Amino acid sequence: MLHERELPNPPILTILLGLSGNLGAPQLGQQIHTIAIKLGMDSGLVVANALVSMYFKCSSADSLKVFDSMEERDIFTWNTIITGYAQHGLGREAIRMYQLMVSAGVLPNEVTFVGLLHACSHSGLVDEGHQFFKSMSSDYGLTPLLEHYACMVDLLGRAGDVQGAEHFIYDMPIEPDSVIWSALLGACKIHKNVEIGRRAAEKLFSIEPSNAGNYVMLSNIYSSQGMWDEVAKVRKLMKERGVNKDPGCSWMQIKNKMHSFVTGDEEHEQIQNIYATLWELYTLLKATGYVPDTDFVLHDIDEEQKESSLLYHSEKLAVAYGLLVTPKGMPIQIMKNLRICGDCHTFIKFVSSVTKREIDVRDGNRFHHFRNGSCSCGDFW
Question: CA-CA distance, 134 to 326, in Å (whole number)?
Answer without folding.
Answer: 48
